[in-house]
Amino acid sequence: MTLEEAIATRPVWLQVWVNILFLGAFVLPLALLIWKPSRIAGLVTAAASILAAGGVYWIYGQLGYVRLLGLPHILFWTPLVFWLRHQQARPDMPVWPRRIILTVCTVIVVSLAFDYADAVRYLLGERQPF
After folding, report:
1. In angstroms, rounded to a whole number, what is the distance separating the alpha carbons of residues 57 and 54?
2. In degrees, to the nearest 5, what angle opens at C-alpha 122 toward C-alphas 62 and 117?
3. What is the mean pLDDT of the chain?
4. Entry pTM
5. CA distance from start to end of the chain
6. What are the Cα distances from residue 122, in Å, to 27, 40, 44, 117?
7. Helix 95-123 to helix 71-88 angle, to the nearest 10 degrees?
8. Residue 56 lies in a domain
9. How far apart are CA 89 and CA 113, in angstroms?
10. In a domain, 24, yes or no
11. If I label 69, which of 7, 42, 108, 118 is the partner at 20 to 30 A Cα–Cα?
């Protein structure tokens, strides 16, 4: 079973969330490429999200659909959020990239809340696949 097929077996709210996460962490950052002051933020965010996704697929291939799947998000997105907030505060950052960065950070932080909770539960012994 692929990761996409495994997600399709989960509750509808989770499937909706995965789509929101894809839009907020993978697609929306590409809009930052429009403005020169936010281009690096867009590229760094896209790269971090691609690396995190690759890590999720790798863990899925090794362990299956387990609570540890959020670990790559934790490793790549936690420092990214702090860096993006710093980028957002730059005086030369136009208003629309600031709004986009805030939206991206909001989506990522919500995801990280789930990811941290799941990682802790995994470390405390909940290692069975969903």
Report:
1. 5
2. 120
3. 97
4. 0.93
5. 13
6. 29, 34, 29, 9
7. 150
8. yes
9. 23
10. no
11. 42
Domain ranges, residue 76: 32-123
Contact 38, 87 (CB under 8 A): yes
**Tens-digit pLDDT profile for residues 15-28:** 999 999 999 999 99
**Any domain includes 2:** no
Closest CA to 86 of 34, 54, 130, 45: 45
pLDDT in tens, 56-98: 999 999 999 999 999 999 999 999 999 999 999 999 999 999 9
Please say whether the dihedral angle defined by the alpha carbons of residues 88, 93, 95 and 97, taken in this order, is positive or negative. negative
Lookup: tokens for 77? 């997105």
Tokens standing for residue 100: 């986009």
- The conformation of residue 24, written as its DSSP 8-state character, comes to I
Dist. CA 97–CA 38, nearest whole Å: 6
pLDDT at 128: 87
**Residue 10 included in any domain:** no
Q: Nearest Cα to 50, choosing from 34, 78, 27, 66?
A: 27
What is the enclosing helix (H) or strand (E) of 110?
Answer: helix 95-123
Contacts with 100 (C-beta within 8 Å, 6 or more apart), sequence order? 28, 29, 31, 32, 38
